[in-house]
Predict the structure of RNA-dependent DNA polymerase.
Amino acid sequence: MSPGPPPSNFRSFLIVRGGGRNRCLHRSENNELFLQITSIENLFIAWERFRKGKRSRQDVMLFECHLEDNLFALQAELASGAYQHSPYERFTIHDPKQRTIHKADVKDRVVHQAIVNIIEPLFEKRFIYDSYSCRVGKGTHAAVKRLRTFLLRGSTNNTKIVYALKCDIQKFFASVNHQKLLHLLERHIYDHETMKLLTGIVESFSTSPGMGIPLGNLTSQLFANVYLHELDWYVKQELKIRYYVRYCDDFALLAESPEECGVLTERIETFLNNHLHMHLHPNKVHVRTWRQGVDFLGYILLPHATILRPSTERRALRNATTDNTSSYLGLCKHADAHLVEKMIRNMTSG
């Protein structure tokens, strides 16, 4: 996604501060990518994107009170090389399972957005079509729909048995190897200053020495896709799997027999271990026929229906309120869940 137009009052900022280009134009052309990331134009665009849906939050309001000064000061820090990532705020969420989120401060999150604005297009054009996490026009519902299409094709319109191998990578975000990630980024980013900035962000967090990226960073979403693109390439190019869908660290592929699924599991595990320093979750490798039901991303796919996973259905009925009704109704919309939808409406209408 390329940066959109700057905010409407942006030109007045430029006039007041004496020009629109950042103050590091003396740098060589080899640092053009860094110039784009740290330009004041891109920082204002990053701010506009970051603040959507967050303007009522106290830390965001405080930053916005002196927005012009804060962004020009940030641009000066970045351009001079003085910028350093701040510590994270740690908290726990349940969505539904417990997850530990590490939240960066507002200034750092603007930097994350500024980086993604510029470098995401460099990688987006290299990703496979069937990678669905944190990409424009993709998402969980599109991934489920795509897997259903694959099941239909692989079973020749449900006239033969097809086997789905569903896998999950164990502790993915905590297991990302910093050195490997930076190497993958460096393959396509030749700008030393940009790599220095990315290195600082990668190394701003660790679960153990040289390992881990934080849940919650916008950059982590892009880094996850860059990292797991290696798995995508291996599955598509080396294993020659035609029907394969991945959403972050969850993926599913189709095979013709349980034995083939077993062989593929072993080969994928070996690849993950040797090349990405990761492992499949031993309790989350499942082989199912379409007729048995394929569990993927909160839904169960059957030949004549897509239904909510029972735990998803129970959570929706337990937690639905007037504040989150639209979210749970959205889950139902993409499944054959008319009764659940009616029950949620009845629970929250009063």
